[in-house]
Please model this.
Amino acid sequence: MMRRMEQNLRTPGPTPLPDEVRTAQSGQMIDHRGTEFAAMLRETAGGIRELIGGGDESEVFLLTGSGSGALEAAVVNTLSPGDRVLGVTIGSFGDRFARIAEVFGAHVDRLEVTWGQAADPAVLAERLRGSEPYRAVLITHNETSTGVTNPLAQLAATVHAAPGDPLVLVDGISGVGATRFEMDAWGIDLVVSASQKAWMASPGIAIAAVGPRAHAAETTARMPRFYWDFRAARQYAEKGQTPWTPAIAVLYGLRVGVARLRAEGRERTWARHSAVAAGAQAGLKAAGLQLVAAEGHRSHTVTAAWLPDGTDWAAVNGYMRQRGLVVAGGQGPLTGRILRVGHMGDVGAPEIAAAVRGIADALGAFGPPRDADAAAAAVLATHEAALSSVS
Ligand SMILES: Cc1ncc(COP(=O)(O)O)c(C=O)c1O
Model:
């Protein structure tokens, strides 16, 4: 059963809002210096900390802005101009994280990995061994531009074993909340996300979870910062407030999204996303497409597939959108060469089966016919098998 008849929004963020979130977000404004707001902020930040496996010493700040703002916050609160930083980049968002550090004056080296592949901990270890110590290593947990999830636990362990024990700063924007994540156990010093991804709220709240080592780094960090200054965020968080006027309506929604995830339970949420992803992968393959991400590293929140040679992406995309299916195209060098199907947050197999059917239909309308029914059936069957193997 399709829950939203108006449009099957399958971008990897923003993601569709559950009705409960939409209702919450239409609530009347409250005083962001009042007790009701303080309770909402504490409940939501505390819930996120629990969901991402943050320990007692870590803090979650809810800042108003998009995910890129949180990336900037991660950089400016921990680093100084001239600091040596390694950007592990496996796609467009890894490039963005490295670029932000560069813009603020860090000396950034890059470990660039072919798009579609994950970073290899052995290659990272080699790179770290062969160079002067780095102050921080920037890693993308889930690379939305290619549908690849990095082996983050191993990469973080590799960084901690390197000379100087660099900080591990993570872009978790499109992974956390949907995919296994253990901030403390994996030694993640700082991770960021954003409300419009697995958290099921509208865009507008940037999430930053700060561990004790990143907190300590704030005192020596000399990059310029004002709006994103964690010292201000902390001072106000102690009173249940934010330093600046927050996106109150988005926080209403985020509180509900977080409560839903807590009610579902982390393991069940992760298993649901994993099963839906398996369905998406099987369905796109059954539609005759090849996946961008290397096997073993495929994301549970977004699946990217190569478009057949000669596809007129604008025409195919227009055809799908006229029929209410909205998927994402490629970014940067992959523009016009791939499509991406988002499956994070409030998602189940029926929406993905409908999306895969729509993709097969659209490609068939402009090229050789494809069996859309078989592709949709493959989504449902694979999803079912994946779910029953974990229950
Ligand atoms: C992995 C990743 N990093 C960064 C961003 C940028 O977030 P925003 O568009 O909210 O600034 C996104 C958004 O899609 C993302 O998926």
